[in-house]
Design brief:
elongated, 20 helices
Amino acid sequence: MNKVILLLLSFSLSFSVFAQKGKVTSAQNLKDTGKLDKALETIESTLNPSNPKSEKTIPWPKTWEVRGDIYHAIYQTKDANFKQLSDDPLTEALNSYKKALELDEKGKFDKSIKIKLTLLTNDFSNQAVEAYNAEDFDKALFSFEQVIEIQNIDIVKEDNPDIVDTVIIFNTGLVAYNAQKYEKAIKYYSEAAKYGYNGARTHTLIANAYEQIGDTLAALEAVKKGFEKYPEDNSVLNSMIDYYLKSGKNDEAMKYLNMAIEKDPTNATYYFAQGSLFEKFEDEENALKSYNKAIEVDANHFNSYFNLGVLFYNKGVQQEEIARAVPPNDNVKYQEELKKADVWFEKSIPYLEKCHELNSEDIYTLESLKNLYYRKKDMNKYNVIVEKLGQ
């Protein structure tokens, strides 16, 4: 009698296990026939820890694989009602496949899950691009990071262990930057730079990210490293000059600026920057030479004309200060010094008039010309400028 009871109990337990595992198969069939709501409900019932019958299905890799399939199908469905079954079906699918691999100690499910992870990678990439275009940069970042995570899963990586997807890594850095996650941007850009992706530009982007977190020193080191690797790339050289200027390291800036001019002697911007630096060094003679050289290579270089005009204008103002320092009883000397100021103001006018010709709306040019015409008592030109200023 006892043997009969034991046999019946054993059969009952076996049937219970079979029935519960049968639910996993049912869930798969429901998914295959498009009944995603029923499929999801069925598979989740096999993973309910409060249900004793789930004791065999929770640690079964197949349960988690099917769960991953269902969530992946929810992502891919066009049915709006089924779309509402999960806020983030791709992540649920990935986590399910990872759980299946964790439980599958003998690797029986490796082949099928590897294929599914590859398909998942494509959908994560598409989701990332869609999120980026919608300016949901946090979601785009999360999606790209999941692509990288899948690419580094052992069964995925084993076929091509030396392959590095630099495009995905770089794009992850790009969306991290846009999401204002600058530390992550630096991490991914730096990884892409290790493999030479996008050349010098990637080093400049690393520097930009460092600048966003206020680390100017690290930004400068990033562009220096880029210049060392890509000495022929003018963009990274320009960035380095710019960072030296921002850091107040004018001597270093001049050193690399001279290098830039040597490489590209027809670039007016370099001569203009050089002239500005010479002015900082109070070397007016060389500043004038640099500004004139900029105009020589680019006859319409507004900034160089403007700086020349301002340089002469300021010298006129300085000379007026000298005139005012003359004793009140020495009018002859006062007039002599004042005429010297007029010489500088006269020199300034052609450059500022050229600026006005190049950009008739520039306020600083208009204000300067107004003052100069007034000094010259050229009231016709003065009135034209006043009218232009709306005064």
